[in-house]
Design a protein that fits this description.
alpha+beta, Multidrug efflux transporter AcrB transmembrane fold, Alpha-Beta Plaits, 2 domains, 4 strands, elongated
Length: 312
């Protein structure tokens, strides 16, 4: 039987390296931009411009006009019939607005201006606060649920804590990736980023609970086996299910990255990285962490450090 949990130190090391790289990217971003991510107009404020064209247009075609003039963070949404475009971009000077309007008219025909207004950063602040509260609430609910669902298993509290640690791991990996892409490719955080992070949390916890549930089933069936062996057996029994579930979603996200619109690529990329991290953390972090806790690895580690300090 392949021993997955026996190599847990290497899995922890890899996770530590990935998280450290992400934190370094956040620190660099903080020194350059004043925030750990580059912020879009959802958080900094900007211009909301709604135009109705005489012919159907696509978001990519309209956005291209803005990108050519240095407004790469512009997002465009169109109505079902394709005639009306809702454009969000950084504040436009009057002369720049005139130039862009003329370029749009030359490309798509004379458009009717339905709305033009300045948007403040209030919406972004509200969304951020709500997402933070939702994350904390989700962590508490997950902890309580796992404690109740695993109450017949010894140390049920540890299962909940390990699931939350895996969830935090995935959030840090996805956030670090976005901070790095902000430095490399100029990506900016918008409301879709927060949506992606909350989705990653859901997938991460779901996959972890599947493995924990199999451990709960196997403990009374295999009372004579060491806990480490039971956990490793449970991992192998659920490995195919975990991979099959996550790979289906991953393939869809890859298709979106290859064939989807430009405005969806950042969202899909964060979701893809988060799901890959979620698959990894559920198998190689949450469960091995539970084993380390049950076997007292952390206590021995702290005792060794204390002994070294005492000897010095």
């Amino acid at each position: 039987m392949f021993d997955i949990v026996g190599k847990r130190k290497w899995y922890f090391l890899l996770s530590g390296v990935l998280i450290t790289l992400g934190i370094i990217a956040m620190i660099i971003s903080l020194t350059q931009f004043g925030t750990i991510f580059r912020l879009s107009i959802d958080f900094t404020g900007g211009t909301l411009w709604e135009l109705r064209f005489p012919q159907p247009v696509t978001p990519a075609e309209v956005r291209e006009v803005f990108v050519d003039r240095g407004y790469s963070d512009t997002t465009v949404q169109t109505t079902t019939d394709g005639y009306t475009a809702l454009i969000r971009c950084k504040p436009l000077e009057p002369e720049v607005k005139t130039q862009i309007a003329q370029a749009l008219f030359d490309k798509f025909g004379k458009a009717e201006e339905l709305r033009y207004e300045t948007v403040g950063p209030t919406i972004g602040a509200i969304v951020t606060r709500t997402a933070f509260i939702a994350t904390i609430a989700a962590a508490l609910v997950i902890l309580v649920f796992i404690i109740l669902a695993f109450r017949r298993v010894p140390n049920a509290f540890r299962y909940g804590v390990c699931a939350i640690v895996a969830m935090v791991h995935d959030v840090l990996v996805a956030s670090g990736f976005f901070a790095l892409m902000g430095l490399i490719a100029g990506w900016e955080v918008d409301a879709l980023f927060l949506t992606a992070i909350l989705t990653v949390i859901g997938f991460s916890v779901q996959d972890t609970i599947v493995v924990f549930d199999r451990i709960r089933e196997n403990i009374p069936k295999r009372r004579g086996e060491p806990f480490e062996v039971i956990v490793n057996r449970s991992l192998l029994e659920t490995l195919h299910r975990s991979l099959a579930t996550q790979l289906n979603a991953i393939f869809v996200l890859i298709a979106i990255l290859l064939f989807g619109g430009q405005t969806m690529k950042q969202f899909a990329s964060v979701l893809l990285v988060g799901m890959i991290s979620g698959t990894y953390s559920s198998i190689f972090n949450a469960v091995p962490l539970l084993v380390s806790w049950e076997l007292g690895d952390f206590g021995r580690l702290f005792r060794r450090r204390a002994d070294k300090r005492a000897a010095a």
